[in-house]
Specification:
By secondary structure, the chain is α/β, with parallel strands linked by helices. It is built from 17 helices and six strands. The two termini are 45 Å apart. This is BTB domain-containing protein.
Length: 375
């Protein structure tokens, strides 16, 4: 049984004179109506039906119901949703909506089983993701930290409440932000591991792998980056060329530290993806010849035309300039070359369309299986 703190204060807004249930949150007393708390088949509706026997009735001023794990401001936001007037509730669907308030409402509604209120607040958050200035790309360091903390809280909330629509929206948003700032990619990678978000894992790990130094610099050697982008990592750096200032500058970079398991997944993913590309570059995606191809064309010549195109384009500058492990990027570069191919003299038109579909299917399968490369 938890004891009441000696110094308690009455909430200025929700210690109601005609309230019938006193609750203690931290050091703050709230006095609200039992009928309000009993709505929606909530946790409180069951609590109020428990026989008290000879003990003092919980919820009176002498024996308040003590709630733990919440702050007074969070609980105050929750009570606002229970007591708000219709025009006040409508404000949450406008750009003026307080996102932090909605997060508090959703979390506490979930905790105390106010299912309808939980769904309403999560739907409002869903609407806010498109209009709120609090979610989206930022430029200042402090704003970036606040943005990542807010997105983290939202994704965890959507996962806890099993709100698939909001979770899908947030994952899509985070995938867009990853391409703008590497910090979001690190965040996405960590959340994917923590919450087992398959839809986020592959893209997040690939982004970090493409833009980060995975193996730290050693004296006399260059950084080992796995993605093939950014700094020039292809040439060795002499030991004397690394100055103390450069080393200190690298140490000061605001880059999150990878855990051993994350580093292992990145290295394993690099090996698997490069192995996949080694196979793909010598084995073009298969396709079915059109029925008219055998009647009017030489199928062998049609196939040979496709194979020659594939061998040429997989060695093209637009492909090899990408990282060895960026298999998706390389395949998409080949797709662009295919669109510029024009009319292939020795390939039936319908077969070209079939080959296009085969290439698109190859990309789709790789996108779906990308998380498996980083298991």
């Amino acid at each position: 049984m938890q004891r009441m703190p000696r110094d308690t204060v009455r909430d200025d807004t929700y210690y109601l004179i005609d309230g019938s249930c006193v609750l203690l949150v931290d050091d703050t007393l709230f006095n609200v109506h039992r009928t309000i708390l009993s709505k929606d088949c909530s946790f409180f509706s069951g609590l109020f039906t428990i026989p008290q026997g000879h003990n003092p009735v919980e919820g009176t001023s002498d024996a308040p119901i003590i709630l733990t794990g919440d702050t007074p401001s969070e609980f105050r936001n929750f009570l606002w949703a229970l007591y708000a007037l219709p025009h006040e509730l409508m404000a949450v669907h406008t750009p003026r909506a307080d996102l932090n308030q909605l997060i508090d409402i959703a979390r506490i509604s979930n905790k105390y089983s106010f299912k309808s209120l939980e769904t309403w607040s999560l739907d409002a958050i869903q609407d806010s993701t498109y209009t709120s200035p609090d979610i989206g790309p930022v430029t200042k360091v402090q704003e970036a930290h606040e943005s990542t903390a807010r997105i983290t809280k939202l994704i965890r909330l959507a996962q806890t409440c099993s709100h698939d629509r909001l979770l899908t929206t947030l994952i899509s948003l985070l995938r867009q932000l990853m391409s703008l700032n590497i910090q979001y990619a690190y965040l996405a990678m960590t959340l994917a591991d923590e919450l087992e978000l398959r839809a986020l894992r592959g893209a997040a790990y690939l982004e970090v792998m493409s833009k980060s130094t995975i193996v730290p610099r050693l004296r006399g050697l260059s950084d080992v980056g796995l993605g093939g982008k950014g700094k020039d990592k292809d040439s060795l750096v002499g030991a004397d060329s690394i100055t103390q200032d450069e080393l200190e500058e690298e140490e000061e970079e605001d880059t999150p530290i990878l855990t051993p398991s994350q580093r292992l997944r990145l290295l394993s993913g690099y090996y698997r993806l490069t192995h996949t590309w080694d196979h793909l570059r010598t084995h073009p995606p298969p396709f079915d010849h059109a029925p008219t191809c055998g009647a009017t064309w030489h199928q062998h010549g049609c196939t040979q035309s496709w194979v020659e195109f594939w061998k040429e384009k997989t060695k093209g500058e637009g492909v090899v300039s990408l990282g060895m492990a960026d298999v998706l990027g390389r395949l998409r570069a080949v797709q662009k070359e295919f669109d510029r191919w024009g009319s292939a003299t020795y390939m039936h038109h319908d077969c070209r369309m079939s080959a296009r579909r085969g290439l698109a299917e190859c990309v789709r399968r790789l996108e779906e299986s990308l998380p498996d490369y980083f298991e």
